[in-house]
Design a protein that fits this description.
By secondary structure, the chain is α+β, with helices and mostly antiparallel strands. It contains one helix and eight strands. About 15% of the residues are buried.
Amino acid sequence: MYKFLLSVIGLMVAGAFTSQAQVTVARLTCEHQVDPQAVNDAHPRFGWELQSTKRNVSQKAYELIVSEGKKPIWKTGRVESDRSQYVSYDGPALTSGKDYQWQVRVWDQDGTVSAWSLPAVF
């Protein structure tokens, strides 16, 4: 009985760590800055960092959305790429003086998708 209880507890602990080992996206940058007040490029470049409680996590794909207010103006759709830096904006022309928000989510090497990042601005 004692061994059975230890096995059950071990499985519960392992399951708790597995369920929390999700990939998250952090430190979003636009033109190498966090939330820049001004961007002087028609095609700004985005970047982000992966965070995970697991070791050796790599990005397999990403999806990026740029919005003006609540209205999305550009969506990449899922892009099969390990690139997380220098991802260029390729949507409609941006208007000077307007604020834009963007978010990203990623898929890891196991196909697990992250939650959307918190919005960043530029």
